[in-house]
Amino acid sequence: MMNEEDTELEHDAEQSNPTIDMVDFIQNAEFNKASIMFNDILSDKISDALDQERIAVASNMFNQDDEQLELDLEDEQEGDDDISDEDLELAAQEVEDLVDTEIDDEDEDQ
After folding, report:
1. Of 33, 35, 37, 49, which sits most exposed with the smallest number of CB within 10 A?
2. What's the average pLDDT block by block, 10 residues per block, for the chain (110 residues)?
3. How far apart are CA 102 and CA 89, in angstroms?
């Protein structure tokens, strides 16, 4: 017991496949319509392939940026290891000397 609505849905589902429609047009010698269907099918496939490639390229760009940032951070951290304890002590002593000199200069000005 199918009503008209169910029959229309089945008919639409059968005709919704553009490849089958194109073959039907070819069998019925409707070559202009078949050509249009072929171009539409091909256009859709090319568009889908281009979209996928755009996604892949964008994904690679952003992943490379993240990887490069991680590498840069690692290089900075490795660069910090190059400073010896002796260098740190000398820098600290220089800072202390500067602070002491400034304090002495302030005391003399008063």
Report:
1. 49
2. 53 70 91 91 92 88 69 60 75 80 65
3. 20
Residue whose tokens read 């590498």? 71
| Phi-psi group of 17: left, alpha or beta (phi > 0 → left; psi -120 to 50 → alpha; rest → beta) | beta
| Dihedral, CA of residue 20, residue 23, residue 27 and residue 29, to nearest 10 | 120
Neighbours of 22 (CB within 10 A): 20
* Phi, psi (rounded to 5 degrees) for 28: -90, 10
Tokens of 49: 């392939």
Q: Which pLDDT value is given to residue 73?
A: 67
Task: Note the pLDDT of residue 35.
Answer: 92
User: Side chain identity at 19, as an amino acid letter?
Assistant: T
- How far apart are alpha carbons 83 and 92 in whole angstroms? 13
